[in-house]
Design goal:
Length: about 350
């Protein structure tokens, strides 16, 4: 598989090769639950599941660029697992400041799942406080597991942790990301644990991760279109001999390249920068996947080709991360407006 980002260091190139080899040894892209579990176990065993988490939290302490490289590769092969991994790593940065050490250990070794959402998300409708009962509904979580703990990011420095025993789960049908085992959540909790910590690092990781996964989808879609065009003959030669086909292919590669380059170069200390990078990459994922289908014509919609899946996954990823709410939050921050929290606006 191609890499459309900037030049990789030797260690990063080895990580990329390891994940490519892992994908080739499995049936990449399968949406069946059994395969998702097999792939998840293999990713955990390889040490890539929470690669970017500090070593004392169960990770390997990889830098952000290497972490995003891993998530771009997961986006190519198993985007649902990529998003679950991103949430696990973001959760660990928060759980490090709380009391749930057992949950942290489970998240790190892949035996426990956790969903991380914004209080402002359109998916979240929850009311309560740490002194009283919490109730509400979360329309969707996507963690590649049937059940999970939930962390709701609330304002600049408050995160509410709800353990599985306070939650009930129901399957939700979605267009793509089938491996995510999307669930709706009903919340009825006597209490929640309030974890107070600076949330920008977790937000930045989530948004850049979503962008990297989308860039991976775009890259895989561009590769699929290029391979098809090179192998398919029409009018006495390969499709790549037709100028309009070549132009479409280069536009797809340009989109994938811009997506991962923007994500990798974003300023992780700026909410506006990481949100813009995520939005650009999510749009590239949808656009390039659509162009890839067009490159295959009617064949693009057949299950024997991966292009239809890329379109479904790109669209579902955008919904799962709720980019609209993220952009609205970033706009409020740029305008100097107070944060909207579960307890009302805060300064």
């Amino acid at each position: 598989m191609s890499w459309y980002g900037t030049a990789l260091e030797d260690e990063q190139a080895a990580v990329r090769a390891m994940l490519d080899d892992l994908a080739s040894s499995l049936a990449e892209g399968s949406e069946h639950q059994g395969h998702t579990e097999q792939a998840r176990s293999a990713i955990v065993e390889s040490g890539m599941w929470v690669l970017g988490a500090p070593e004392d939290l169960g990770g390997a302490g990889a830098d952000l660029a290497t972490t995003l490289l891993v998530l771009e590769r997961l986006g190519r092969y198993w985007p649902a697992l990529g998003w679950a991994s991103a949430q696990a790593q973001a959760a660990l940065t928060i759980l490090a400041h709380g009391s749930q050490s057992d949950l942290s250990a489970g998240v790190a070794d892949g035996s426990s799942a956790v969903a991380v959402l914004e209080a402002e998300s359109a998916h979240v409708s929850v009311t309560g406080s740490h002194d009283g009962r919490w109730t509400g509904q979360i329309d969707r979580i996507d963690v590649a597991a049937d059940t999970a703990a939930v962390i709701i990011l609330d304002g600049e420095s408050a995160a509410w942790l709800f353990t599985e025993d306070a939650l009930s789960f129901d399957p939700v049908g979605v267009t793509g990301l089938e491996g995510a085992r999307t669930r709706s959540v009903t919340l009825d909790a006597a209490r929640a644990e309030l974890v107070t910590t600076e949330l920008l690092p977790a937000r930045a990781l989530l948004r850049l991760s979503a962008g990297a996964i989308a860039a991976g989808i775009a890259g895989a879609a561009a590769d699929a279109a290029r391979e098809y065009a090179a192998s398919r003959s029409q009018f006495g030669g390969a499709l790549t001999l037709i100028p309009v086909v070549r132009q479409s292919l280069v536009e797809q590669v340009n989109g994938a390249t811009q997506a991962i380059t923007t994500v990798m170069s974003a300023d992780s200390a700026s909410l506006a920068s990481v949100t813009a990078a995520m939005e650009n990459a999510l749009q590239a994922g949808v656009t390039v996947a659509g162009q890839s289908v067009q490159s295959l014509g009617g064949y693009g919609y057949l299950d024997e080709y991966p292009t239809g899946r890329f379109v479904r996954d790109a669209a579902s990823l955008r919904s799962a991360v709720d980019s609209f709410s993220a952009n609205r939050q970033s706009a409020r921050s740029l305008a100097g407006l107070p944060w909207t929290t579960l307890q009302g606006e805060s300064s």
